Amino acid sequence: MTTARSAGLLLFRRTGEGVEVLLGHMGGPFFARRDAGAWTVPKGEYGPDEPAWEAARREFEEELGLPPPEGEAVPLGEVRQSGGKVVTAWAVEGDLDPASVVPGTFTMEWPPRSGRTREFPELDRVAWFPLERARELIVSAQAAFLDRLTEHSL
User: Are 128 and 13 in contact, with CB atoms under 8 Å apart?
Assistant: First the structure.
């Protein structure tokens, strides 16, 4: 069995109050009523023949419907999430209006064992958060990306 791998971009911006990061709230029925632990770096899975950096840029566009930002990519390394998935991320400084996001979608059977399928957004909303608030909301393993971003002497 191979380990699932995802790659993503953590967009950040500097404000008068400090650094903010862009996170996406995971779409679909499992996360609809959750806040803490339901926000993520925009990311997605990739195969063994695709470089992680290219996958991160592709997934940013697929998940948000916007081109990935240009600019210096700060490598944030890898984390292993509780389900075993390995996530690789880069931070890129940039800005975007969350209202301009047009999320990609996925289809799943819902309700379970109903035989009916429904389409859900990959991310049902995106928002900017100060680092401390982001730490409270992000998938727990991904909090390491916020720490690593802070270490890069922002």
Answer: yes
**Sign of the dihedral defined by the CA atoms of residues 108, 50, 59, 31, in that order:** positive
Tell me the per-residue pLDDT of 97-134, one tens digit each, with 9 for 90 and over: 999 999 999 999 999 999 999 999 999 999 999 999 99
Q: Which regions of the chain does DSSP assign to beta strands (E)?
A: 5-15, 18-26, 39-40, 43-45, 73-80, 86-93, 105-109, 117-121, 123-130
In Å, how far are 108, 116, 120 from 113, measured between CA atoms?
Answer: 11, 8, 17
CA 11 to centroid of chain Cα atoms: 9
Domains in the chain, please, with CATH?
5-25+35-100+124-151 (3.90.79.10)
Query: Token pair of 88, please?
Result: 């690789």
Fill in the amino acid letter for 71.
Answer: G
pLDDT for res 153: 60
- β-strand 5-15 against 86-93: which pairing, if any? parallel
Q: Span 63-92, mean pLDDT?
A: 95
Q: How far is CA 99 from the centre of its chain?
A: 17
How many CB atoms are located within 10 Å of the residue 128 CB? 18
What local confidence, expressed as pLDDT, does residue 138 receive?
97
